[in-house]
Amino acid sequence: MTLPPDNDPLHLERRVGLPDDLRFLVERYPRDEWAAHDNIGGMAGFWLQRHDMFRDVGRMLTGGIADYREGRRTARDFAQWFAPRLNFFLSNLEGHHQVEDVHYFPVFAAAEARLKRGFDILDADHHLIHEALEANAETANAFLRALDGDEDRRRFAADAYATANDRLVAMLMRHLDDEEDLIIPLILDRGDAALGGH
Questions:
Q1: The 3-state secondary structure of 47-111, one letter per residue
Q2: Cα separations in angstroms, 135 against 88, 109, 166, 173
Q3: Are 189 and 37 contacting, i.e. CB atoms less than 8 angstroms apart?
Q4: Is this prediction's pTM over 0.85?
Q5: Is 184 helix (H, G, I), strand (E, B) or coil?
Q6: Is the separation of the CB atoms in 184 and 47 below 8 Å?
Q7: Can you list the domains of the chain with their CATH numbers?
Q8: 3-state class of 37 per DSSP?
Q9: Lower CB count within 10 Å: N or C terminus of the chain?
Q10: What is the pLDDT along the chain (198 residues), one digit of tens a residue?
């Protein structure tokens, strides 16, 4: 997998949405009409629920580190709250991306050849997000180790984690929106059975 260069307008940290040539289905099935569509149950509904869960946990982690940095949580209290939520977030996100890359993206790209480039973009996103997940885990572990240190060490480690987390969450929010704009209209258009769903 060749990752896009940092200055590529489609790079995850630079783009502001999918290019126009990949938006033909989302224009036919706009986001504000999804909930009323007959095919929103099953695979599409599950996909949106998983994405909403990732958004919620990402915001929760961002809010939690802010609470600690602003003195609303002690270091020990924060560590007990933080570690299980971070582990849940990182492991579920990694597993979700693996299933998409191995199973769903190839099926979806085969079902609609005009969207193949979009799935290549999403696949490249997954590699960038994986790197950001690793950086997030490293800074989180460094922060947890620093809890036994002095205040300066804890503050520095908390700041480093907050920076890594902000980057990951921003990447994830852009990716989830773009992935939904590509996939949900395809599912609405074709139905679960035609795309390997049940």
A1: HHHHHHHHHHHHHHHHHHHHHHHCCCCCHHHHHHHHHHHHHHHHHHHHHHHHHHHHHHHHHHHHH
A2: 16, 30, 11, 17
A3: no
A4: yes
A5: helix
A6: yes
A7: 20-195 (1.20.120)
A8: coil
A9: C
A10: 566 677 788 999 999 999 999 999 999 999 999 999 998 988 999 999 999 999 999 999 999 989 988 999 888 888 889 889 999 998 999 888 888 888 889 999 999 999 999 999 999 999 999 999 999 999 999 998 998 888 899 889 999 999 999 999 999 999 999 999 999 999 999 998 888 765
Which residue bears the tokens 């961002």?
Answer: 62
The full length of the chain comes to 198
Q: Measure the CA angle with vertex 102, ends 113 and 176; round to 5°.
A: 75
- In the structure encoding, which two tokens stand for residue 78, read together? 């924060």
Q: Tokens for 134?
A: 């690793």
Residue 46 — φ and ψ, nearest 5°? -65, -45
Closest by CA to 13, choosing from 132, 163, 95, 96, is 132
